[in-house]
Design goal:
Blueprint lengths: L1 H14 L1 E4 L1 E4 L2 H4 L5 E6 L5 E5 L4 E5 L6 E5 L13 E4 L5 E5 L4 E7 L5 E10 L2 E5 L2 E4 L4 E3 L3 E5 L5 E7 L4 E7 L9 H6 L3 E5 L5 E5 L5 E5 L5 E6 L6 H5 L7 E4 L2 E4 L5 E6 L5 E5 L4 E4 L5 E8 L3 E2 L3 E4 L5 E4 L3 E3 L23
Parallel strand pairs: 1-26
Antiparallel strand pairs: 2-30, 3-4, 4-5, 5-6, 7-8, 8-9, 9-10, 11-12, 13-14, 14-15, 15-16, 17-18, 18-19, 19-20, 21-22, 23-24, 24-25, 25-26, 26-27, 28-29, 29-30
Length: 350
């Protein structure tokens, strides 16, 4: 009975779409400085960080949103960034940026003021894999930074996630590549195993596959697989039904490389440990800690939004780009999302 009740509550919640509208934003006179803000995050101090990929700059914005300044500038030398692809802020305001000077993947760590404290270059050259919003994204597509560890999706190593110390030492790997049916094409097989590692409040990890069939896996803090969920919903049925079986290619120094379009645009974990997944269509699914979908969200500002980054700030609001908006996670008219139901022991229904 309890299991059936839980299922009915989750089904009822998932069938509704909560429309969220911004309650705050970076003012237009400040936002106008940025060319392509694809990362919008916040430290526990309240300071905001804006990752402007097209300008090759990381900006700071004060907690009151009255001024902005350049923290990290464009350049290929150490302490600057060139051709950046990913960005992540730790709670203390230190942050990591992945870029590619001379076509070599590099990760650098900075203080909140922009002083470089560490960095390292990955041994292999990057290869183009994803087409996203008209850009071919090379190398590291997403990263997580805890302040002491860096986690990146690196399926070419044979594992889904590689964990690095700040000096570049590999200190752990998580997950095995999924079957794709394209194992005879190593580049395509790797592209279909790319995704986003997302640290949970209990020290575990969600991994969201970004390409191909949308799937979520959750691992505990020791790297053991807890569960796998196929992501489903009527809002994305057409996208999944139209997933291609062949992909265009482009030639680089390593030969022909498949260019794959993502199914998932971005994802994030909130303070309660729930997982938010935003798709290429303008819907976001929310899953509880046990992997059950309990909410479907649509972001709207001047129009319907398809987020390309999500981040939960110090007040619990979700920070979203494009637009540099802040949204309350409550639904319309102040309606809060249905809380995850705690699992209970039960006798299986016969």
């Amino acid at each position: 009975m309890l299991r059936a009740l839980r299922g009915l509550v989750l089904l009822f919640a998932a069938l509704q779409v909560d429309v969220l509208r911004p309650i705050d934003a970076i003012p237009a006179h400040i936002a106008g400085r940025f060319r392509d803000p694809t990362g919008f995050q916040q430290a526990s101090s309240g300071q905001y960080f804006v990752f402007d990929r097209r300008s090759h700059v990381v900006f700071g914005v004060d907690a009151a949103r009255t001024s902005a300044w350049e923290i990290v500038h464009i350049g290929g030398e150490e302490g600057r960034i060139i051709d950046p692809t990913a960005f992540a802020v730790a709670p203390d305001g230190s942050f990591a940026v992945a870029d590619a000077p001379g076509g070599r993947e590099r990760i650098q760590v900075f203080t909140p003021a922009g002083f470089r404290t560490s960095g390292f270059t990955l041994p292999a050259r990057h290869t183009p894999r994803l087409v996203f919003d008209g850009f071919v994204l090379n190398g590291i597509g997403s990263l997580q930074f805890t302040g002491t560890r860096i986690l990146i999706s690196q399926p070419e190593t044979g594992s889904l996630v590689t964990e690095y110390a700040l000096d570049g030492r590999v200190v752990g790997t998580v997950g095995h590549l999924r079957k794709t049916g394209h194992e005879n094409d190593p580049n395509l097989h790797v592209a279909l195993n790319g995704g986003m590692p997302l640290v949970t409040p209990d020290g575990g990890l969600f991994f969201v596959f970004q390409t191909g069939e949308p799937i979520v896996q959750k691992y505990d803090r020791e790297g053991r697989l807890l569960f796998e969920r196929h992501v489903e919903g009527r809002e994305i049925d057409e996208v999944v039904a139209k997933l291609p079986t062949t992909w265009p290619t482009r030639r680089d120094a390593d030969g022909e490389v498949a260019i794959v379009t993502p199914t998932v645009r971005t994802a994030a974990v909130d303070r309660d440990g729930s997982l938010w997944i935003a798709f290429v269509v303008p819907y976001t699914f929310v899953y509880d800690r046990e992997g059950d979908k309990f909410r479907t969200v649509q972001f709207r500002a001047t129009g319907v939004m398809a987020p390309n980054s999500l981040f939960f700030g110090r007040s619990g609001r979700v920070l979203v780009t494009p637009g540099l908006y802040e949204f309350s996670v409550a639904g319309p008219a102040g309606r809060a999302p249905l809380p995850p139901i705690q699992p209970v022991l039960f006798v299986p229904y016969q």
